[in-house]
Write a structure and sequence with these properties.
Length: about 550
């Protein structure tokens, strides 16, 4: 290719290569403003260069992404009456949301399925389309990162999918996004959610809508539908992971899936269903799932396509990695401390913030019911539950309390205590027994051990472990049971060093029953008088 008369020692084909490798549209815009030569080369091949950059932005699934933003989504005016409504008077008796639903159900299925097919050739992109592609690319990157962490590589928060895996995943995800946009669950501003009550639903509408949905899915071959099924399984898994906080909502899964990849990204990022309730509360608040947005939102139309084609349908229990991934890192891994074969579900640094537990529940024994301790602990850790701060907090707990276990009673042990990395213990002068049995005898509150016993216990209470934690490393992977046991034996030790930093004066006398004391749960005076952040010296450890 000839060199333009610009004085730059670059051939046109080299400049063309520079432009098509621009990672973003903004970079491309800056590049073509470098000189008239760059601009002239761009003007020679605007479609191919723009499309190449679009591929850099979105990935190989660009045709599916472009269909999402270019699809002629039906605009329904509920105020316009058709002949049927004029005859039966439905327009006068039903609300806007119901009339919109009826009108949507009468759209031609084949028109919906064949409109705006995926285009693989170059085309002019408007500024608005470029902005939408940027938005979709950002959402899809986050969506893929989440999928990768849960299904590909539990040790990385950024996607480890290969280029081929990423293409398959994103193409399926964009097609799901299109489906959700066409068969939206959201109401317009002037629509009343009361119009969509299940009791007023006409089964004939469902039959028409199911045909429309099947027609849209029929645009893809059976293998591509199986890939979409795997992505949908992943989406369900993310929503199901919220069940420990919100309860079982499988019946309303269709309403959640109708929010598409954006709904999953927001739910994962926020650690809550607030986004889902904001957009689909009119469905989630129904006692019975709405027929158009129940568990069959995707399942029934897909099944009808496979049945019509006599094609193999995915099994209900197939993991989300099926049909998407060629390899899962650590799929057969076991817990570093026990034989539990949890594989991708094992806990490690990258997914600590997804550990399903409230910090308060990680306090040992009866400590969670000690009101004196509980209020202060909640103030410090309450915000951590279901948040991105949970992981850093667990790392803080780990770093603060991973002292190697030491044999008690030896001179060498006492000498090493001052130089080890063990947490600084709360000063203790005595171990006070409360009463044997139910620890509820007032007279026993003043009983103390001898001064010699007190001195021996001063530097050992926080460092007395009920098991050997040597070899436990934050860089290893653990099953939920082992991880929980580790935290139960360390969170209270972390709080023992943190609580005094708030200005609280920790009692100098330890309760004989330590964190297992029953009396601390119902006698505030006892809970305030004695320290219970210690290992029991009587009763069960």
């Amino acid at each position: 290719m000839m060199r333009a008369l610009t004085g730059l020692p670059l051939d046109d084909d080299l400049i063309d290569r520079i432009l098509i490798f621009c990672p973003t549209f903004e970079t491309l815009q800056s590049a073509i403003l470098v000189s008239k030569h760059f601009y002239r080369v761009f003007e020679t091949h605007p479609k191919s260069i723009t499309r190449a950059v679009a591929y850099n932005v979105v990935g190989a699934a660009l045709p599916a992404a472009l269909r999402v933003i270019r699809y002629p989504y039906p605009i329904i005016n509920p105020e316009e009456e058709d002949e049927e409504e004029e005859e039966d008077g439905a327009a006068d008796s039903e609300g806007a949301a119901f009339r919109t639903m009826v009108k949507r159900s009468k759209l031609d299925p084949h028109t919906l399925g064949e409109a705006c097919p995926e285009v693989h050739g170059p085309s002019i992109m408007t500024a608005e389309e470029k902005n939408r592609l940027n938005e979709l690319a950002e959402t899809m990157q986050q969506f893929e990162d989440i999928y990768s962490l849960r299904n590909k590589d539990r040790t990385s928060r950024t996607s480890k999918l290969t280029p081929d895996e990423s293409f398959v995943f994103r193409q399926a995800a964009f097609r799901i996004m299109l489906y959700c946009n066409i068969f939206t669950s959201e109401l317009d501003g002037d629509e009343d959610e009361g119009d969509l009550l299940v009791e007023t639903f006409d089964p004939e509408i469902l039959l028409r809508v199911q045909k429309q949905r099947a027609a849209v899915l029929s645009a893809y071959d059976s293998e591509e539908l199986r890939e979409m099924h795997s992505v949908l399984t992943f989406m369900k898994d993310v929503y199901s992971s919220m069940a420990s906080y919100y309860g079982d909502f499988d019946e309303h899964m269709g309403a959640l899936l109708s929010l598409g990849p954006e709904g999953v990204v927001r739910t994962w990022r926020d650690h809550s269903l607030d986004y889902a309730h904001e957009h689909t509360s009119h469905l989630l608040d129904l006692e019975q799932a709405h027929p158009l947005f129940d568990a069959d939102y995707f399942a029934k139309p897909m099944q009808s396509v496979w049945t019509r084609r006599n094609a193999k349908a995915p099994k209900a229990n197939e993991p989300a990695s099926t049909y998407i991934l060629d390899e899962v890192f650590g799929a057969n891994d076991t817990c570093s401390q026990c034989p539990t074969p949890d594989g991708i579900k094992l806990l490690c640094r990258a997914n600590w913030d997804r550990f399903e537990a409230y910090p308060l529940s990680l306090l040992r024994g009866k400590l969670p019911n000690n009101l004196t301790l509980r209020m202060a602990f909640d103030q410090r850790t309450g915000r951590l539950a279901a948040s991105d701060e949970l992981g850093p907090w667990i790392e803080e707990v780990w770093a603060c309390n991973t002292a190697p276990p030491r044999a008690s009673g030896s001179a060498s042990t006492s000498a090493s205590a001052s130089t080890s990395s063990a947490p600084v213990p709360i000063p203790t002068s005595t171990n006070v027994d409360v009463a044997a049995g139910d620890d509820d005898d007032d007279d026993d509150d003043d009983k103390t051990e001898s001064d010699s016993d007190s001195e021996n216990n001063t530097n050992t209470m926080l460092n007395k472990y009920t098991r050997d934690w040597s070899g436990w490393d934050p860089d290893l992977s653990y099953c939920k049971s082992c991880f929980m046991e580790f935290l139960l034996d360390h969170v209270w030790r972390w709080w023992a060093t943190e609580w005094p930093k708030t200005g609280f004066i920790v009692p100098t006398d330890d309760c004989w029953y330590g964190y297992n004391c029953n009396t601390q749960t119902h006698r505030p005076a006892h809970a305030q008088k004695l320290n219970h952040l210690c290992v029991p010296t009587r009763g069960d450890p």
